[in-house]
Design brief:
Helix 8 (263-268) links the parallel strand 15 (260-261) and strand 16 (275-276). The chain is 24% helix and 23% strand. It is built from twelve helices and 27 strands. It has helices at residues 13-23, 41-44, 98-102, 111-121, 147-158, 190-199, 247-257, 263-268, 309-318, 403-420, 442-452, 502-519; strands spanning 3-9, 29-32, 61-62, 75-76, 122-124, 137-141, 174-177, 179-180, 182-183, 186-187, 204-207, 211-218, 221-229, 232-244, 260-261, 275-276, 288-296, 330-334, 345-350, 353-355, 360-362, 366-373, 381-383, 394-396, 429-434, 454-455, 485-487. It has two domains: 1-88 and 179-284 and 381-397 and 461-514, 3-Layer(bba) Sandwich (FAD/NAD(P)-binding domain); 143-177 and 288-375 and 401-452, Cholesterol Oxidase, domain 2 (2-Layer Sandwich), CATH 3.30.410. The radius of gyration is 22 Å and the shape is globular. Strands 1, 2, 11, 12, 13, 14 and 27 form a seven-stranded mixed beta sheet that branches. Strands 7, 17, 18, 19, 22, 25 and 26 form a seven-stranded antiparallel beta sheet that branches. By secondary structure, the protein is α+β, with helices and mostly antiparallel strands.
Amino acid sequence: MPDYDYIVIGAGSAGCALAGRLAAGTASVLLLEAGGSDRRLTVRAPLAFAAQMGGPTDWNFSSVPEPACDDRVIPQPRGRVLGGTSSMNAMVWVRGTQIDYDGWQLPGWGWSDVEPVFRRVESHYLGGPAHGTSGPVRVTRLPEPDVTSTRWVAAARAAGISDNEDLGGPDLDGTSIAPVTVWKGQRWNTARAYLPAARRRSNFTSVTGALVHRVVIRDGSAVGVEYERKGQLRVAGANREVILSAGAYGTPQLLQLSGIGAADHLRAVGIAPIVESPGVGTNLTDHPAAAMSWDTRPDFVGLSDAQKPQWLLRWVFRRTGKMTSNAMEALAHIRSHPELPAPDFQLIHSPSYVNLVAMEQELRRASSVLQSYWTPKSRGTVLAQSADPRDAPEIRLNTLSHPDDVQAFVRVVRRTREIVATEPFASVVTAELHPGPDVVTDAQIEAWLRSSVATTGHPACSAAMGNDADSVLDEKLKVRGVHGLRVADASVFPCIPRANTNAPAIMVGERCADFIRDDQ
């Protein structure tokens, strides 16, 4: 059994950051990833990300039938590839606002603690002092936004939304073209940001195609990891720590497979309980999203012709053109009610037809506005369905189960229509396609929402840290009840931030590396 000082499970947003920072020291580091290489056109070409849904780089999870959403099963795409979901997301870089992190009320996690970490992570096009200029993650302004996106930003400003060229936070209010993790026309995921330097060091080992079965716990300590590769079961020992970075779905499932969770549930699915931790897999929070769409005038083609060979050739040879688009080109962060302390919605303009129910972009001439709800009150669960790690966990989002969430969406549908009806965007569109001009009353809008709301792909909070003894993790990301086991990914958030969760997840990976270094 080979031994390493640290074993990181999951090469995603947080896992790559954590493993890269740990490898910069002298300790030996093993990074395990269930997926394979990120050297794929669908990963590297920004606009191709939607083609990954349901493919070999996607865990292809789904929720159970959601009672408050017409009993629909909601797709839950998650990256199964080096870089994790940073290899298949829409690349939008938003850190969150001060009240998000201060609101956690945890030592070491206030805005004054995390803001320097974000700066350490970034090589940001806006430069200092608000952003970092020499970090591993490249953040740029979308280089060639479609004319409909620039018109949409202008319309949002004309409709009363402030002009804000730095939507990354902490001042989130306003509208602009999206800040993105795209560099020289290619996706800049965490595998590209952190792993090349680590691979040059002899103390770093990465293994792909490694499906982790469980953390090996002996006498109350995490001592290794059992994983499967090419049909063979293997065990790697950990001399110091094991860190779970398997994401908001994978991490709670692996904790449960390792015997950490609600004892009654574990016994019911054939797992021997080791540590009673009923919070594992609870508090699941996502940013639910709706997508409105409009037909556009014939001279506004948007991304509808992006599959033409000319655009692929332009990207292959020059890294320019429509394939460099992240499809989610323009943002407006708004408050659906004037008394709110910060924005509760991220509006996202896409120069294409977006179908969130089917999790796909249809290449037809249209413009869409996605409404991502940042502060939902609905909470869900992630539960292992059996002792077999190949069985996907049961994901129950409970989306729109809280009436306040529904009312917030109704308000934002009306506000979105106001923006779209404002010049210079009003002359771009013709007919409203979804929900359609006949959907006008609160009841009609609610019915449409329940039939169409899906996800922004930001699951979080399912193995949350906290001060109380019942929390899954303490504020140093240590799993309560097990020595030498931590978690570093979006599952640790006590409350989901107002952000596209890639940036906060990377920050958590960096923060975990800090805690481990401080404990040495």
